[in-house]
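Appendix C: a fully annotated inverse folding record. The material below is reproduced so that readers can follow the format used throughout the book. The structure is listed first as tokens, followed by the designed sequence.
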């Protein structure tokens, strides 16, 4: 009852919240206070747990510019608060970085941010087509999920058509992830320490834009949006024309353990292996029919060419699309993860949905229904979600 009351209050109270105001910062700068609240209700048959209301995501941030060249962002957030009755999630630091913009061809970033190799991970929370955050497909080295600390250079070349991002990150550090398991029973741990040479994690992405670029220097460009809409004359209108293709890579030497097994399937030892992830993507956000309609789509392929014994080895596919008609947008999403060594890491999901956009209030209301299957040989499980994204 407490969860349902709290989440209903978040949904019903958002029209009363004041709009975010930019506060002055020095003679030439300003800072915005941002708040994102995403209440969600999972719907499932009673034998699978029934309904589950919880806070899918919530974040509070400060972002802005101190001057024309210096931008920054500080973001605190919490995920899955109250899911399955678990209210133990803590507010944690998500991002904290500063950027020095030399010009549009070169920006220098330092701090904690999202590694730039995967477009689905870079997209803003409030700019998605569907409910899923695609976390099943976007993997990271052990202990480095989501964000990482380091340095990044990015910019746009060839009349803003080509966007590049190159980051050197902390990744898995020397000695991190030490497996203390005694595999051979001699009384001493057998697994070697990860990252013995302390080499950085390197992530890179190249993106070609046929029309408008994805973003500018500063916070708005660090996280491009999958769907960009604005209010105009009492209707919803697309604010840009985007058609991009991109390639990304993520790599770190000796950042993984690979377990060796005997003929009976028992683990007998563990050795180091490199982490590598590759992706290619297509992003579409196109206004149609005098901005009264929009086509939104994202297609991304993932390949993890890891040691064949590692459970993250394999490939994946994401395809989602939406067609906006006025304020309403029917959507469809498909996710596939084909894990190499074991069926237990496989995943397939298909959903159709309907989204109501209210950009004058910075809100999206989504309803989705579909089915998913985790692991090999299991029957499809029906599921549905109702989610609101409220930005203040």
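Designed amino acids, in order:
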């Amino acid at each position: 009852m407490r969860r349902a009351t709290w989440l209903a209050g978040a949904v019903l109270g958002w029209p009363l919240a004041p709009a975010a105001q930019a506060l002055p910062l020095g003679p030439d700068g300003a800072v915005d206070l941002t708040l994102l609240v995403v209440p969600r209700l999972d719907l499932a048959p009673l034998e699978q747990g029934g309904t589950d209301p919880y806070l899918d995501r919530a974040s509070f941030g400060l972002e802005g510019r101190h001057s024309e060249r210096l931008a920054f962002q500080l973001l605190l957030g919490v995920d899955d608060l109250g899911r399955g009755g678990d209210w133990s999630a803590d507010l944690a630091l998500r991002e904290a970085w500063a950027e020095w913009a030399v010009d549009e061809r070169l920006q220098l970033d330092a701090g904690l941010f999202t590694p730039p190799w995967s477009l689905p991970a870079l997209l803003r929370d409030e700019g998605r087509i569907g409910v899923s955050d695609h976390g099943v497909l976007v993997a990271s080295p052990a202990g480095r999920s989501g964000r990482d600390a380091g340095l990044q250079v990015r910019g746009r070349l060839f009349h803003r058509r080509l966007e590049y991002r190159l980051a050197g990150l902390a990744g898995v550090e020397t000695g991190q992830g030490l497996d203390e398991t005694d595999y051979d029973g001699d009384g001493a741990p057998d697994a070697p320490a990860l990252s013995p040479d302390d080499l950085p994690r390197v992530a890179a992405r190249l993106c070609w834009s046929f029309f408008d670029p994805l973003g500018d220097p500063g916070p708005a460009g660090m996280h491009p949006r999958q769907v960009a809409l604005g209010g105009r004359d009492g209707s919803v209108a697309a604010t840009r024309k985007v058609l991009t293709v991109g390639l990304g890579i993520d790599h770190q030497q000796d950042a993984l353990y690979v377990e060796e097994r005997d003929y009976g399937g028992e683990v007998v030892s563990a050795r180091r292996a490199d982490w590598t992830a590759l992706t290619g993507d297509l992003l579409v956000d196109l206004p149609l029919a005098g901005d009264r309609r929009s086509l939104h789509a994202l297609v991304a392929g993932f390949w993890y060419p890891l040691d064949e014994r590692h459970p993250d080895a394999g490939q994946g596919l994401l395809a989602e699309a939406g067609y906006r008609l006025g304020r309403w947008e029917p959507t469809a999403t498909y996710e596939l993860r084909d894990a190499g060594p074991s069926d237990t890491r496989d995943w397939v999901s298909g959903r159709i949905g309907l989204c109501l956009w209210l950009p004058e209030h910075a809100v999206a209301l989504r309803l989705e229904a579909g089915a998913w299957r985790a692991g090999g040989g299991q029957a499809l499980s029906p599921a549905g979600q109702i989610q609101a994204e409220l930005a203040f």
